[in-house]
Specification:
The chain is of the alpha+beta class. It is built from 3 helices and 7 strands; from the N terminus they run βαββαββββα.
Length: 208
């Protein structure tokens, strides 16, 4: 068994990071995730959002790992359960593979919380437990897979930054569209009023 862990600080508020995390896929940094299906989503009596998803992924194992494991299969299904608590400002996500379980299991846990000293930042803690089963060189393979997970984690953080930038761009475009619509409506209203104004003045004059 191999345990890998990491901590990262995002320079964005918790709410912003969580919105991005919920819209993380698809993204160009993680092309290995080829499909995401929401199986169930619900709110509990404490107002926490529970989501169960099925991820279709290309694990991208090194050739030597696939050779030792004795499999050429790369498409793997992962079940994921996340809980978002808007009151406590905490998101916890747990995932595990449901294919190739006779050979290897990877259990991951991610927790997003506000930075204890700066509410404009968010702390992400990650942990993965890798277990290779029933073959020799298991420790070696677990270390190789831990390196792959570390690389994918960096890509995942880059992906969140990409999504946040995309969301900010969409928000600015929406604001610009609304302002343009307001300006167009105001201009149209002014034009209609100016066209009707002479007639109103004339009617008022005749009624005097």
């Amino acid at each position: 068994m191999k345990i890998w862990s990491s901590e990262h600080v995002f320079g964005h508020p918790w709410d912003t990071v969580i919105k991005a995390a919920m819209r993380k896929y698809p993204n160009p940094m993680n092309p290995c995730v080829v499909g995401v299906d929401v199986l169930h989503r619900s709110l509990d009596n404490q107002g926490r959002l529970h989501s169960h998803r099925l991820l279709s992924t290309e694990w991208g194992l090194p050739s030597i790992v696939k050779a030792i494991l004795g499999t050429s299969r790369t498409l793997t299904y992962i079940k994921e359960h996340s809980v978002v608590d808007p009151v406590e400002k905490k998101m916890e996500l747990c995932s595990t593979n449901i294919t190739l379980t006779n050979l290897v299991s990877v259990d991951e846990r991610l927790v997003y919380t506000p930075h204890p000293e700066n509410p404009e930042k968010t702390v992400l803690t990650q942990e993965a437990i890798i277990t290779v089963k029933g073959i020799s060189l298991s420790s070696y393979l677990e270390s190789l897979m831990a390196n792959t997970i570390s690389s994918n984690a960096r890509k995942g953080r880059d992906a969140l930054e990409w999504v946040i930038s995309k969301l900010n761009t969409e928000l600015e475009e929406l604001k610009s569209t609304r302002e343009n619509m307001k300006s167009a409506m105001a201009a149209a209203s002014t034009e209609n009023w100016s066209q009707k104004l002479p007639r109103r003045l004339l009617v008022g004059y005749l009624n005097e």
